[in-house]
Write a structure and sequence with these properties.
226 residues; alpha+beta; endopeptidase fold (from Nostoc punctiforme); 6-stranded antiparallel sheet; elongated
């Protein structure tokens, strides 16, 4: 009788161990599947972001050599912020209509050494002694040494591509902003015009890209426009 009880107890413990191991295996498999799905989702977001960037820069380069005109936002001529806002508008992102406003309101600030293609890059205006944004471009290519080129509407050359290593621009660099990446919840957008004297509140998207209102205010200061 005693041996019978020992046998039943041993059988019970063995069965419990088998089910425990099986349960742990299933739990580990589920956890691995979740991790794999997260990795695949992140890869998908990054892939979509790269495709968006390629499309945006291809679109922008289609306007190379378009003349510059202050206050213009396409398609026959542009000023600097008119060009950047026009390009992004065609991909569903509404930017503030001035270079200073875009630097203040739109996107997430990124370090100069961490810029990516499609980021906005901001510079001082013609008077380098004034420590305020007066010009904007879109980063076109990032080179292995960390330098980059950008496409922009230049006063003298119209829509063109320059390098950050050019003396004129290297001495006027102010900051860079990222407008989009895989997770749209982190993007700040606005359809409100502003001048250098404005202090608009930041508006965060809810995951959907916002189209710019056709009834945009015309009170933007010309001095703030690139």
């Amino acid at each position: 009788m005693h041996l019978k009880h020992l046998f039943l107890l041993s059988f019970f413990l063995l069965s419990f161990s088998v089910f425990s191991v099986k349960g742990q295996i299933i739990a580990d498999a589920d956890r691995n599947n979740v991790n794999l799905n997260l990795v695949m989702l992140e890869d998908k977001k990054q892939s979509e972001s790269v495709m968006m960037t390629d499309s945006l820069l291809n679109f922008a380069s289609g306007y190379l050599n378009t003349p510059y005109r202050i206050g213009a936002n396409g398609t026959s001529c542009f000023d600097c912020s008119g060009f950047s806002s026009y390009v992004y508008k065609n991909f569903g992102y509404a930017l503030v209509r001035t270079a200073a406003g875009q630097a203040q309101v739109n996107g997430m600030k990124v370090d100069k050494n961490s810029v990516q293609r499609g980021d906005l890059v901001f510079f001082k205006g013609r008077d380098a002694k004034q420590n305020r944004v007066g010009h904007v471009g879109i980063i076109y290519e990032v080179f292995p040494d960390g330098t980059f080129s950008f496409i922009h509407a230049s006063c003298k050359r119209g829509v063109t591509i320059n390098k950050i290593t050019d003396d004129y621009y290297s001495s006027r660099y102010v900051t860079a902003k990222r407008i989009f990446e895989g997770d749209d919840d982190r993007i700040q957008i606005t359809d409100r015009s502003c001048s250098t004297s404005d202090h608009p509140e930041k508006i965060y998207s809810s995951g959907k890209k916002k189209k710019q209102s056709s009834g945009r205010s015309q009170k933007t200061s010309r001095q703030a426009k690139g």
